[in-house]
Amino acid sequence: MQVTVEVVGGDTHEFDAEGATYADLLAELDYSPHEVAVLVDGTPVPEDQAVDADHVQVVRLIRGGS
């Protein structure tokens, strides 16, 4: 199963996601689940869930402030 992973505000990547979880996709992109959210059709999905979509968005979470 091919999946397109769009990093919002960044690049788009294609992966073979056969048997993969969303956390596996993040690892391929060198992102931690603590720094991004994974969205399918605009809805967050758990990182430990098996990939079941052909298009995924990764949104970097903003941290900062005092």
Helix count from the secondary structure assignment: 1
How far is the N terminus from the C terminus? 43 Å
Give the overall form: globular
Domain tally: 1
Radius of gyration, in Å, reads 11 Å
CATH architecture: Roll
Give the SSE order as H and E letters. Answer: EEHEEE
**Contiguous runs where pLDDT drops below 50 for at least 5 residues:** none
Widest beta sheet: strand line-up: 2-1-5-3-4
- Main CATH class: Alpha Beta
Any idea what the CATH superfamily is called?
A: Beta-grasp domain
Measured as a percent range, the helix fraction is: 10-25%
Fraction in beta strands = 35-45%
CATH topology: Ubiquitin-like (UB roll)
Say how many strands there are.
5
Structural class: mainly beta
Mean pLDDT: 94
Protein name: Sulfur carrier protein
InterPro entries: Mopterin_synth/thiamin_S_b, SAM_domain_containing, SAMP2, SAMP2_halobacteria
Organism: Halocalculus aciditolerans
Pfam family, one: SAMP2
Features:
66 residues, mainly beta, Ubiquitin-like (UB roll), 5-stranded mixed sheet, 5 strands, 11% helix
